[in-house]
Amino acid sequence: MVSNSPVIEAKNLGLTFETNDGPVHALKDFNLAINKGDFVSFIGPSGCGKTTFLRVMAALEQPTSGTITVNNVSPDEARRQRSYGYVFQHAGLYPWRTIAGNIKLPLEIMGFSKAEKDERVSHVLKLVDLEGFGRKYPWQLSGGMQQRASIARALAFDADILLMDEPFGALDEIVRDHLNEQLLTLWEATEKTIAFVTHSIPEAVYLSTKIVVMSPRPGRITDVIDSPLPRERPLDIRDTPEFLEVANRVRNGLRAGHAYDE
To answer: Where are the domain boundaries for CATH 3.40.50.300 in the chain?
Structure first.
């Protein structure tokens, strides 16, 4: 599934915000290549630039130095080409729209026909295991189901890249485990390239082909770990020595980042 062709590439990327208290260096000397089909998790303490980098990829923030390309074009052009879908930490579903109506929203904006919208909604509802819930309203679904609907909305226009900003962070552990399993199944089925922000070491190790460990102030990369784990990953793989070894390396990278900040 994973190829050697970079679909996202950052070179010497930097982003500085000007504030009343002086400049804040959100990202500095950021170099990273994400290949087609990768599942890349970004992990680090709050304020280390994880979400900021996701927003740069999505053209929601503009870097102040360096370069970044998405599908070999600028993030702005990638947005115009509909190269990515974005899943936020909170589902962000409109309460007055049904689940199907929420999923259709980007398709309506893009001018898809009714037949195309209906076909795509049906397809993505099946992908996220929400068949039969299209006529429900968000308040009638659990938090986990709402987040799956949010993922379906991001998948509706079949973008190559999925940007996910802590989508399961507010959910309890059992629901989170279940959605992690479902997300891996969805990733295998769609062959998307996924960039995923998390604070959870087990989640990052379980999901990823590559883990990017970051440190704060300024946000920079302290380690990039290519996962040695097999693609078939039952939840109990988290008890294996191989899994624990990767988790320990992530933890050491986080500690090193804190030490650097001191």
So the answer is: 6-83+160-261
